[in-house]
Specification:
By secondary structure, the chain is mostly helical. It has helices spanning 2-35, 47-68, 84-118, 130-155. The model has no long low-confidence stretch (mean pLDDT 91).
């Protein structure tokens, strides 16, 4: 079971990287267009709307892989001085709390998406339906929930890391 969650999170991060590359190129094109407005070019219409949506989507797509790779920031000032069983307990409590947070976040994204769709809310310039952004972020949130569930099961000893997974890169102390 864990292998497909890890693969899904990895592909999610790859898609997030593509989204960031696209909004970067679009920003360059828009800034260049503004600079060359004297020769008939102009900015990309709705560039800031696209950057807002793209950044939010990329963040949600990156976070599950970041978590599985142990890439979140930690404060080890006190943690490193705790006995091993307390370190494991602290990690488990943090993982369970983050899972609860992700579940609540995913639920509210779903509610927000349905509400934005029901009221046909759109962006100001592009008139793009706002629920599209919510839907894209929701996909990343679901993958995040799967990642937190998987890591919690691994910490409880009910699942294992995929074959060949470097445990030291998974944030195991």
């Amino acid at each position: 079971m864990t292998t497909w969650v890890f693969r899904l999170a990895r592909w999610s991060a790859i898609v997030g990287g593509v989204v960031l590359c696209v909004i970067t190129l679009m920003s360059v094109a828009s800034i260049t267009g503004r600079a060359l407005s004297g020769v008939g070019l102009g900015p990309v219409p709705g560039d800031f709307e696209l950057v807002e949506v793209g950044t939010g989507v990329a963040v949600f797509l990156f976070l599950p892989w970041t978590y599985l790779r142990g890439g979140h920031a930690t404060v080890d000032l006190l943690y490193n001085h705790l006995p091993a069983f307390l370190q494991k307990t602290v990690s488990m409590v943090c993982d369970v709390l983050m899972l609860a947070l992700w579940l609540a976040l995913t639920w509210k994204l779903w509610d927000g998406m349905l509400e934005k769709r029901e009221y046909l809310e759109t962006t100001f310039i592009l008139q793009m339906p706002v629920w599209w952004a919510y839907a894209a972020c929701f996909v990343g949130a679901v993958i995040g929930c799967l990642a937190y569930i998987t890591k919690t099961l691994i910490n409880l000893g009910l699942a294992r890391y995929p074959e060949g997974w470097p445990v030291e890169s998974a944030g195991v102390h």
